[in-house]
Amino acid sequence: MGHWSSMFNGLARSFSIKKVKNSGNGVVARETAEVLAKDAKKNDMVLRSSGTVNVNGSKNFASVFSKRGQKGVNQDCCIVWEEFGCQPDMIFCGIFDGHGPWGHFVAKRVRESMPPSLLCNWQESLAQMVHDPEFDVDKKMNWFNVWKSSYLKTCASIDQELEHHRKIDAFNSGTTALSIVRQGEKIIIANVGDSRAVLGTTSDDGDLIAVQLTIDFKPNLPQEAERITQCNGRVFCLLDEPGVHRVWLPDEEVPGLAMSRAFGDYCIKDFGLISVPEVTQRNITSKDQFIVLATDGVWDVVSNQEAVEIVSSTHDRSKASKLLVDHAIQAWKKKRRGIAMDDISAICLFFD
Hints:
The chain is of the alpha+beta class. It has helices spanning 2-14, 17-23, 27-42, 103-130, 143-163, 222-230, 296-299, 304-313, 320-335, and strands spanning 46-47, 51-53, 60-67, 76-82, 90-99, 174-183, 186-192, 196-202, 208-212, 234-236, 246-248, 255-257, 263-264, 278-283, 288-294, 344-351.
């Protein structure tokens, strides 16, 4: 009872349930969520670039770093929002990897839209439950389903709004999106694309081990390839890129996307590309030390185990993400000579 009472008290402080119920179209909910985002940024609880987030009394410490590759403007972007939605035990972390001529604009737009939209949908879901005559706070609430439903609604609305955005051309451009919400000792993970979340935890023998928490949604995964081909899209590798599977239109060798899920890219949305997230959950234990969120620029050259060992090796947590990114840069030079280095970004979220 205590956990849910605390959560609802925090909800009441951040959001008017009565207004949500009466808003109908959710306008009040969206406006309230956006105000919370502005207040959090003003109070240094939101980070949108390289740096750290460490609010006094928090159980979290987040380190963020991003480095432009050799392909032009940096199309990666990140966000960390501590005390997400005025909830003292919540934090939101998101990492976005744009592609295409407008990819950096698409990535930034999704980064700005996702947290307040998710917060809005989560609050509305809770509000509807509270106003249900059969709701009983003493009964176990299905925490995961509330968050999963909120994420599915959020991603669907973002992709729909992006398609009709007046100032961003996302027809041949898009972005991946990987985000997590930590609420107390639980984590919800939502992944659209091929960025990856990896947990650094301790084995029963006391060794540091890596646990991959997400799937890299590449076009050659059986379930992804089946969906694409059923929609008349094609999946194959170019002769000069063996092993790199891409998504193509039925009759043209475009756009050649190296992932099977993304926001934007409307030129191929009718041919198997989707923006539906895979949503999963995990309980944090005393053995879990940190989570690494990183774009494929890291995972193309660094293994999961290498990544957690690099992050764990630093005594200064504020430098953890930079250390990982710098290691990936050196790995690119050794392993991928002659290939333009990708943008490389990482978030390291530590648990006290």
